[in-house]
From TrEMBL:
Stated name of the protein: Oxygen-insensitive NADPH nitroreductase
Keywords: Flavoprotein, FMN, NADP, Oxidoreductase
Record carries keyword Oxidoreductase: yes
E.C. number: 1.5.1.38
One example GO MF annotation: FMN reductase (NADPH) activity
CDD domains given in the database record: NfsA-like
Listed InterPro entries: Flavin_OxRdtase_Frp, Nitroreductase, Nitroreductase-like
């Protein structure tokens, strides 16, 4: 495979960083690389908050469930879906804009995710490590207030960036077999592929260098459907101006 594909397949979440700081120009280049991602109708419905204030980072770490690497990483970015900028730009042309549609929420969320993944790949190509922080959605209202996010902007996830501590470098986590993901013409059952993948994940968890446990992929999904439901997100998004109408 070519070096780009090899880099993409080598991704792992980094949670332990050295004290080395990322140069400012490097960080700006990562953001420019993020901006080069595909964007629906060239809307570019995202903003990125570079959280430099140490007390704010400590507060975000607390609100996100005690994830201390938000504080210890070189740089922490908050990726926000932003429909404020494009809506107001269109309105200034005299357009009779409609706000708060479900489609606008989807466009902004997808745009943000695409942009962030470009930043992640660019960072890893520079020898940096990254870790997405979805835990910011535990307390999105408090984080929005902390970062002074206006209406029609919401925090989708955060990202820790820094130089990895190679002494605690995690192994690459296996992914589902491509046969489970790639379906030909119509949707087909993938129960057998999932069962085989569960066995692969059980071996991985039992053999990895840090955080060994007796589990598999299917059992690890339990929190998503039992405890990490975040039922507050719908009301929060409506309050933000994403009415999903």
């Amino acid at each position: 495979m070519n070096p780009t594909i090899e880099l993409m397949k080598s991704h792992r979440s980094i949670r332990q960083f050295t004290e080395q700081r990322i140069p400012r120009e490097t960080l700006l280049e990562l953001i420019r690389a993020g901006q080069a991602a595909a964007t629906s109708s060239h809307v570019q419905a995202y903003s990125v908050i570079h959280v430099k204030n140490s007390s704010n980072r400590e507060r975000i770490a607390e609100l996100a469930g005690g994830q201390d690497y938000i504080v210890s990483c070189s740089d922490f970015l908050m990726f926000c879906a932003d429909m404020k900028r494009p809506t107001e730009a269109s309105e200034r042309t005299g357009a009779a804009v409609t706000r708060g549609t479900t489609e606008q929420l989807l466009v902004a969320s997808v745009d943000t995710a695409l942009m962030a993944q470009n930043v992640a790949l660019a960072a890893e190509s520079e020898g940096l490590g990254i870790c997405y922080i979805g835990g910011i959605r535990n307390n999105p209202e408090a984080i929005s207030d902390l970062l002074r996010l206006p209406k029609h902007v919401y925090p989708v996830f955060g990202m820790c960036l820094g130089y990895p501590n190679k002494e605690n470098f995690p192994e690459v986590k296996p992914r589902l077999p491509v046969e489970a993901i790639l379906k030909e013409d119509v949707y087909t059952d993938d129960t057998e592929e999932v069962a085989a993948f569960d066995e692969s994940m059980r071996r991985y968890y039992s053999q990895r260098s840090v955080g060994r446990k007796d589990s598999d992929w299917s059992h690890n999904l339990t929190p998503l459907f039992e405890t990490k439901l975040r039922p507050h997100m719908r009301d929060f998004l409506v309050e933000r101006g994403f009415e999903m109408k």
